[in-house]
Amino acid sequence: MVQYQQELDATFAALADPTRRGILERLGEGSATVSELAEPYGMSLTGLKKHVRVLEDAELVTTEKVGRARRCSLGPRRLDDVELWVGRHRRMLDARLARLGEFLDRTKGEST
Amino acid sequence: MVQYQQELDATFAALADPTRRGILERLGEGSATVSELAEPYGMSLTGLKKHVRVLEDAELVTTEKVGRARRCSLGPRRLDDVELWVGRHRRMLDARLARLGEFLDRTKGEST
């Protein structure tokens, strides 16, 4: 349970940055080298590599050395946890809103 | 677009902490005072208030002063953005996996 919480921490923290979300969106279209990923941001390779490492630590991205380049791909596992947590939280919320709606219906007397 | 990105940053960062996720889960069952929220964590009120403020800034929680206590409730708006982003990202990923599956089907010759 502690490990699950730590993984969720790392995943949410990794997603809390527009460059890192952009990298994930780009990798959604297919794998890319670090240089290709850096291009649209006008960012140094060193800067971009730091972002890739955060995503790699959160297992949202996997990388492998191909010749002299490092190729990045999506590592899908941990986004499942995010979706699960958000979805579970939303269902609780929806149930609460439904109860509130029923309460309002009951208390407003005759409906028009 | 910049504001949307900044809001997503704040939302994901707010969710990157087990205490804050715990607070949201607790508030999913109904509103609570800061003291009630602090109880299960054995945390000081000051410590808990900091977490509540982060959630408030991310508009995941709203608070109001009721007598001498501060009552916290869920503010649902921004979780929609998280769900939307994760969902969109997942759909891209699923499409990519489906294409990969088709490719593997085509290349494996006769199926058994």
Question: Topology of this protein?
Answer:
Two copies of one chain form a homodimer.
Chain A: H1 2-15, H2 18-28, E1 32-33, H3 34-38, H4 45-57, E2 61-66, E3 69-74, H5 77-107
Antiparallel strand pairs in A: 1-3, 2-3
**Count of individual beta strands of chain A:** 3
Residues in helices of chain A, as a percent range: 55-70%
Briefly note the structural class of the backbone of chain A: alpha+beta
The topology string of helices and strands of chain A comes to HHEHHEEH
Largest sheet of chain A: 3 strands, antiparallel
Strands in their spatial order, largest beta sheet of chain A: 1-3-2
Low-pLDDT segments of chain A: none
The count of helical stretches of chain A stands at: 5
* CA-based shape of chain A: elongated
Q: How large, in whole angstroms, is the Cα Rg of chain A?
A: 21 Å
Q: Span from first to last CA of chain A?
A: 50 Å
Q: What amount of the residues of chain A lies in strands?
A: 5-15%
Largest interface: A-B, 31 and 31 residues
Mean pLDDT of chain A: 82
Looking at the chains present, what oligomeric state does this protein adopt? homodimer
Account of the protein in words:
The structure is a homodimer of 112-residue chains. Chain A is α+β, with helices and mostly antiparallel strands and 112 residues long. Chain A has 5 helices and 3 strands; from the N terminus they run ααβααββα. Chain A has helices at 2-15, 18-28, 34-38, 45-57, 77-107; strands at residues 32-33, 61-66, 69-74. In chain A, helix 1 (2-15) runs antiparallel to helix 4 and helix 1 packs across helix 5. The longest helix of chain A is centred in the last third of the chain and has 31 residues, at 77-107. Chains A and B meet through helix 1, helix 2 and helix 5 of A and helix 1, helix 2 and helix 5 of B.
